[in-house]
Every structure is written in structure tokens, then in C-alpha cells.
């Protein structure tokens, strides 16, 4: 249900996005720059393509992998180009309301409003960018954006669907390197927890975190609880769950003064291909329940009998993980409770 809402509201989101962009764009070029900040002296502007590649496959993340209602997929991507003094989100800091709503439900309005206000207040934000949701954990999405010497940073966020409040993203990657623009930047992405919902598994019901936690990276051992969907005690590190590649594109005569092109670039047939390097196989060991109590002793009165106990499979093994142990056990007993 969450995913349907995300997908349905996207076109409306894009429309509103355009309104926000128009608002943000006003007056920004006159922004004063403090002198104690590392300066970007690259030529005025650079255009980049952004390619987001999901690597959330069942082979790489076999535990509780969401197969239906909804299957594993990615929300729309919401990004910002900005200066050093703005943060869309930060590890070990509290998520804003906008990040909370996006991470929990994929609703972008508050987040965009926050960005818009930051643009008006401190003129730290140049523009917003977006790419539409993709209905598959290993799909790709593309968009384009423009950066300026005074607004050379990119941040973005993409929500994991389904999940309680989990997302991937980038916080303040600087595309300017002194006097030039970086040609290409590739980053592996790992899941983060927004600290606002305490669900342990992809499909946990809503369970608000009170008081709110800070944003934390989810690892194979944190949160340290066997019920967590990313808890893999045999792994030292989780495999990356997504990848983003930012590539500088040649300037054309076409002026992309504001990144209003994402819908068009997303219709390119190059998107939505599965990458070969998503074929990571993460072993998943079988997990079984505790034993049931011993059953009744069956046998003739006054003689030895047999009783049984059982346990059941909590998690089926995958990718050559440890097989399940015996699920039923019997022992001799003495039938002394004769009627
Ligand atoms: Ca959480």
C-alpha cells in the first residue's frame, strides 16, 4: 500500500517540485559567500548525470527479502544542490520532519518545504532534483542536475520500500575539487535508519520511536538484534544495497538553468537494467524456534514409552547457508500416570 501511494503521487510531486524550484531560483545569484570556507574556483557551472543503481537483490539480502505486497523497490529520489552550510540529512543527527515523512512514507512535501525555506533564509540551496520511483530492488533511475561554484554540493535520499524508516542517500558530496569539477564520482550506498520508527523488519507495522533517535547506519550487526532484517551475524559488512554514479556531462547550448528535465531523462531506454555486479550471494543460515515441551508419554501402563517434542523453521536457509537441524526429537519415558 505504501508503494502505491508513492508511485501515484509522483506526477503531482513533480508538478509541485517545479513550483518550488521557481521559488528557490529567485535571488540566489546574489548570495554572499563567507571568506573562511574552502572556495570552489572552478568555472561557473557544471552539469551532471546521476545514475542510481539498486543492488537490493534477494541473493545479496536473502533474509526476509520482500517478494510481494509490496516487493522490494525504491521510492522516488529527492535531491538538492546546495552550499557547504546546508544539510538535507546527516548521520548521527536527528532527522528533520521532512526526512522522517519521506523515510517512513515516501511523502516529499515537508522535505521540499524545508529545502525551499533554507533557500529563502540562508540562500544555501540552489535547486531540487528528482527521479521517479522504480518498482524493483535492482532497477536503475537517472536524472540530471547542475551545480555552481557557490552551490557545488549534492545531497539526496531514496527510501527502501517496504521498510519502517530506512533509506539510502548521500550527504553533501562536493563535486568541485578546487579549481575544477570532478569528472566522475561513484559511491556505494548502505542503508540508514531515520531513527523515527522502531520496526525491525521490512514489513513491520508502524511503531514510532519515542524519543526520536539519531540517524544511524544499519550494518550486519547493528541494530544488534536477530529479528532485524539486515542482521547477518556471519557477515563482517553488508554488501552495498545501491550505487550512485555522478558523471559530468558536456555542456550543450541548451541551457538547463533549473533541473526540470528529470522526467525526460528518465524515459531513456538505458534505465531499469539489471547490473551484473548485483549478483552477490549472501549465505543465510537456517534459524529454528525453541523446542516445544515434551509431549505425552505414549506406551502401555507400567512399561517404557516414547514422547516427542518439535520445533519449527523461523528462517529458511539460502545461498549455501547452514541447513536446518532436526525438527522433531523423541525420547524414552516411563508411563506411570496410569488411570
Ligand atoms: Ca528505525
From TrEMBL:
One record GO biological process = cell adhesion
Answer yes or no on keyword Calcium: yes
Keywords of this protein's UniProt record, alphabetized?
A: Calcium, Cell adhesion, Disulfide bond, Extracellular matrix, Glycoprotein, Immunity, Innate immunity, Metal-binding, Secreted, Signal
Q: Where on the tree of life does the source sit, at the highest rank?
A: Eukaryota
Does the keyword section mention Secreted? yes
Residue span of the signal peptide, if any? 1-30
The terms describing its cellular component in GO are: extracellular matrix
Q: What does the annotation say about its assembly with partners?
A: Monomer. Interacts with integrin.
Q: Where in the cell is it found?
A: Secreted, Extracellular space, Extracellular matrix
Can you provide one Gene Ontology molecular function annotated for this UniProt record?
A: metal ion binding
Question: Domain Spondin, which positions?
Answer: 36-226
- Organism taxonomic ancestry: Eukaryota, Metazoa, Chordata, Craniata, Vertebrata
- Identify the PANTHER family for this entry: SPON2B PROTEIN, SPONDIN
Q: Which organism is it from?
A: Gouania willdenowi (Blunt-snouted clingfish)
What name appears for this protein in its UniProt entry? Spondin-2
Q: Name the Pfam families on file.
A: Spond_N (PF06468), TSP1_spondin (PF19028)
Principal subcellular localization:
secreted
Amino acid at each position: 500500500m505504501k508503494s502505491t501511494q508513492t508511485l501515484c503521487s509522483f506526477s503531482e510531486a513533480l508538478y509541485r517540485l517545479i513550483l518550488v524550484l521557481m521559488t528557490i531560483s529567485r535571488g540566489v545569484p546574489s548570495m554572499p559567500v563567507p571568506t573562511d570556507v574552502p572556495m570552489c574556483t572552478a568555472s561557473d557551472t557544471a552539469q551532471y548525470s546521476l545514475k542510481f543503481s539498486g543492488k537490493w537483490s534477494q541473493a545479496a539480502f536473502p533474509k526476509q527479502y520482500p517478494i510481494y505486497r509490496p516487493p522490494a523497490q525504491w521510492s522516488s529520489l529527492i535531491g538538492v544542490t546546495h552550499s557547504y552550510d546546508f544539510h538535507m540529512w546527516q548521520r548521527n543527527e536527528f532527522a528533520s520532519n521532512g526526512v522522517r515523512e519521506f523515510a517512513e512514507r515516501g511523502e516529499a512535501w515537508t522535505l521540499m518545504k524545508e529545502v525551499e525555506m533554507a533557500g529563502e533564509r540562508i540562500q544555501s540551496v540552489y535547486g531540487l532534483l528528482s527521479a521517479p520511483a522504480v518498482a524493483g530492488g535492482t532497477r536503475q533511475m537517472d536524472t540530471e542536475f547542475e551545480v555552481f561554484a557557490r552551490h557545488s554540493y549534492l545531497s539526496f535520499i531514496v527510501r527502501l520500500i517496504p521498510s519502517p524508516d530506512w533509506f539510502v542517500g548521500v550527504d553533501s558530496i562536493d563535486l568541485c575539487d578546487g579549481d575544477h569539477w570532478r569528472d566522475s564520482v561513484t559511491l556505494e550506498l548502505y542503508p540508514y535508519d531515520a531513527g523515527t520508527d522502531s520496526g525491525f523488519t521490512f514489513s513491520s507495522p508502524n511503531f514510532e520511536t519515542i524519543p526520536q533517535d539519531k540517524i544511524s547506519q544499519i550494518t550486519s550487526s547493528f541494530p544488534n538484534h536477530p529479528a532485524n532484517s539486515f542482521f547477518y551475524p556471519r557477515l563482517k559488512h553488508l554488501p552495498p544495497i545501491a550505487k550512485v554514479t555522478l558523471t559530468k556531462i558536456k555542456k550543450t547550448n541548451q541551457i538547463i538553468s533549473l533541473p526540470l528535465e528529470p522526467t525526460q531523462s528518465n524515459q531513456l531506454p538505458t534505465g531499469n537494467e539489471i547490473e551484473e555486479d548485483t549478483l552477490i550471494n549472501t549465505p543465510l543460515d537456517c534459524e529454528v524456534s525453541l523446542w516445544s515441551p515434551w509431549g505425552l508419554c505414549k506406551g502401555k501402563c507400567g512399561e517404557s514409552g516414547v514422547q516427542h517434542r518439535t520445533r519449527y523453521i523461523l528462517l529458511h536457509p539460502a545461498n549455501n547457508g547452514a541447513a536446518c537441524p532436526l525438527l522433531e526429537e523423541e525420547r524414552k519415558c516411563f508411563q506411570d500416570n496410569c488411570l
